[in-house]
Backbone:
């Protein structure tokens, strides 16, 4: 009876660490998508290059 009540391992710490790791991964993917969406388009970069060569 005592051996059934004895916990050999506590899974709570592992579950919490996996949840934190998942949140960090989702946050990093969101930041990456944000950078990709807010980047300059090809037309904008060509206009900037044209103006610098005319100087």
Residues:
């Amino acid at each position: 009876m005592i051996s059934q009540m004895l916990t050999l391992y506590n899974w709570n710490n592992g579950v919490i660490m996996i949840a934190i790791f998942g949140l960090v991964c989702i946050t990093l993917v969101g930041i990456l998508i944000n950078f990709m969406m807010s980047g300059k388009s090809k037309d904008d970069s060509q206009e900037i290059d044209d103006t610098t060569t005319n100087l």
Notes: The mean pLDDT is 79.
